[in-house]
Write a structure and sequence with these properties.
Elements (H helix, E strand, L loop, with lengths): L2 H31 L20 H6 L5 E4 L2 E4 L14 E5 L28 H13 L4 E5 L9 H8 L7 E6 L4 H11 L3 E5 L5 H8 L4 H13 L5 E7 L8 H7 L5 E7 L16 H11 L4 E2 L8 E5 L6 E5 L12 E4 L4 E3 L8 E2 H6 L4 H13 L25
Parallel strand pairs: 3-4, 3-12, 4-5, 5-6, 6-7, 7-8, 8-11
Antiparallel strand pairs: 1-2, 9-10, 10-11, 12-13, 13-14
EC number: 4.1.99.22, 4.6.1.17
InterPro entries: Aldolase_TIM, Elp3/MiaA/NifB-like_rSAM, MoaA, MoaA-like, MoaA_NifB_PqqE_Fe-S-bd_CS, MoaA_twitch, MoCo_biosynth_MoaA/MoaC, rSAM
Organism: Takifugu rubripes
Amino acid sequence: MSPHAAMRLCDKRVFWSNLRKAFQCLDRNIKRRYSGATQHNNELEDSTSSASNLSSSLKSRPVKERPGEHGILPFSAFLTDKFGRRHNYLRISLTEKCNLRCQYCMPEDGVKLTPRGQLLSTSEVLKLARLFVHEGVEKIRLTGGEPLIRPDVLDIISKLRTVEGLKTIAVTTNGINLARLLPKLKEAGVDLINISLDSLVPAKFEFIVRRKGFHKVMEGIDKAIEMGYNPVKVNCVIMRGLNEDELLDFVSLTETKPLEVRFIEYMPFDGNKWNFKKMVSYQEMLDCIRQQWPNLEKLQCGHTETAKTFKVPGFKGRVGFITSMSDHFCGSCNRLRITADGNLKVCLFGNSEVSLRDLLRSGASDEELLQIIGAAVGRKKKQHAGMVNISQMKNRPMILIGG
């Protein structure tokens, strides 16, 4: 055997040895949490159980029935956490690259990109998607970076459309390339479109995103409306001293257009120079809007929706608030994330990640992948990754998470 081959064999043995140790460390904790633990038991225990019990421990999690090809199937224990949250929504980042440099998303000097060979390939994206859908995921959202700059994005979407059990394919985009690609995106199977837009003033838009392109984004929004997307969701991160003075202008957009303008509280991530003074809370935004439209009415929303939605009577569209900082919605979270380099994140704010890419490339079986996924979901904290102060917690820049 050559030295190079011997080294690769050694690396693989070390990898699986570490994996077995991780199972041993996690097993007793997972088994305890699904054999009658209450929602308040969030502490880890020392482990003495063997890795062979992990599968049965995972399969003892609470389940909910879901429709399947051959009748009713239980919702996957691997995607159900200790608080009974069922994760049927998967966000997949297709790239770390972006053609904008938004202040809240990316450090001013950019980020160090992962080498191309370490990003998930098309076949790896599809394999993971099929695995999650088989376990109960019904909605997949493609994110980035900017997903529409990935050359094979249309191929990925069209193949996702053939995955049995997948009900919804969504895309979050900055809108720069949207008008040009939207006919093909719709033909490939995109059901929902979210477009980022943080200012209605072209010069301010360029200041926030550090690039030109305002008119292209507006063209993309109009194109989405023209092609029948309803509502077209427009994501706006509100930052004090920058764009909070445009709240009423954004709400006015919903008078004649079928938009859902969603105001997002400014959140802390590496490199975005977050501080509490920059954050405009949901309640402050709501009070401002109600001064202009005192009859603003709250709408009913689904249990797992992230946005609190409102409507001005008589307006065609609506507005929403994503209140991650001031009024979290962790208790109903049904989302998991896979980063462009193949890491599973069970919480947006958490810095804990598990490499599914490395497992795939080491030849792991579906069952082995599910054991790791189930263990990660089992460690998910009750709220905000268990952080006392999330602004001080080390995490990736938003651009590398897939926001």
